[in-house]
Amino acid sequence: MLTPEDNQLLTQTDAGTPMGDVFRRYWIPALQTEELISDGKPQRVKLLGEDLVAFRDTEGKVGLVDERCPHRGTSLYYGINDGCGLRCMYHGWKFNTDGECTEIPSEPTDGKFRESVQLKSYPTKEVSGIIWTYMGPKESEPAFPEFYWMNLPRENNLVERVWQECNYAQAMENDLDFVHAAFLHKAHATQEVEDGILSSDLGIDPNHPLVKNPPVKQSVQDTNFGKRCIAVGIGTEEENAFMEIHYIFPFYTYPPRFGGEDGMWHAFVPRDDHSTWTWDVQFAHDRAIDVEAQHARRGLKLDEDLRKVVNADVEYNQDRDLQKTGNFTGIRGIANQDHAATETMGTIVDRTREKLGTSDLPIIHMRRILLQQAKAFQEGQEPLLLENQSLKTLYSEGLYDDKEKKWQEAFPLQEQFEKKKQPVEQS
């Protein structure tokens, strides 16, 4: 459990909060490239509690700016996007993608006054179908993170983002939880799936190591990107299944996969303290990804605001008969199952009341590093620096090996990911 003070520190990410200021020191996925059209409709996007507007100008440049016009506060979402700028509908003030005021037609002369007006804006980069932003001090801008899947052909990736109705921390804790798959995602019978696909929309095959037996034997290693979480489960009569989850500080993850299965990368970006932009990047290593099959197994159906149609209001379409005959939850769609578990905790779970067990070891470590980094930042220390040489080759891939082997022998951490002599904690 956490103290009320630590739970507050963990979950609050608005500007001026310790965790919020730490998060602003990292590149953040904001929108998909396809969401913005040159001289097209601006898009609202809320990040870390800030109401922003994104637009693509005549030349294709992307602006990410404060939604409120600095004149009188009218929403620029309703503005006119043309002529290489976004013009406020109220008095015609116009701003470019850098937030510079280029026209003030409501004033007789606009020279020095216009030059003094600056709309808050954040830098952007477009990489692999995602528009990224950095919201921290310019002088502290880190290198752009080069994740493994970014170097794959675009047709090998499937990118989605969804508005999740809970705090980022509980959404991310779910992703670091090996054991939940053996229950929440369990299908009662063998599932027929295409090559590379982890599950059907019902769930994961009961013979898969994630489901066959809860992998409660776990360890956590410190790395130069965050944490490597290891679990040992039953593979075959002669072999154990060695699995890994990578937690990349502060809000990126690679959930467990085996060789031959499509990979998954997540980002859990606070929209505000009570909701999260959950990013899914599914990737196939050596072929075009099966978009239809991956969409079907995740089960996400979204409205124009990227909120789920299958949500708490309709009880996630839970079917009680299906719960007896088809899968553990009675809910179709792997993502819907995850969201049902995390959203029904409440938007910010009270961690002072929980009873953690040994299977929660990765979650304990995730919270620990987040709190340590936030407290160190308050004392003037710089947050963890991500190393691109590690990120370029990092992804999750488990393996099978002799039951007599310890995980350290069968599944050692690659040298390039090692952090200088850090203890390994075991459950």
Structure keywords:
globular, alpha+beta, 427 residues, 11 helices, nine-stranded antiparallel beta sheet
Describe the structure.
The chain has 427 residues and is of the alpha+beta class. 19% of the residues lie in helices and 24% in strands. It contains eleven helices and 20 strands. It has helices at residues 4-11, 18-23, 111-116, 168-175, 209-212, 291-298, 320-325, 334-343, 361-378, 388-391, 407-410; strands at residues 27-32, 43-47, 50-56, 62-66, 80-81, 86-87, 94-95, 101-103, 121-122, 124-127, 130-134, 157-164, 217-222, 226-234, 239-248, 252-254, 263-272, 275-283, 399-402, 425-426. Strands 12, 13, 14, 15, 16, 17, 18, 19 and 20 form a nine-stranded antiparallel beta sheet that branches. A hairpin with a 3-residue loop joins strand 13 (217-222) and strand 14. The radius of gyration is 23 Å and the shape is globular. 44% of the residues are buried.
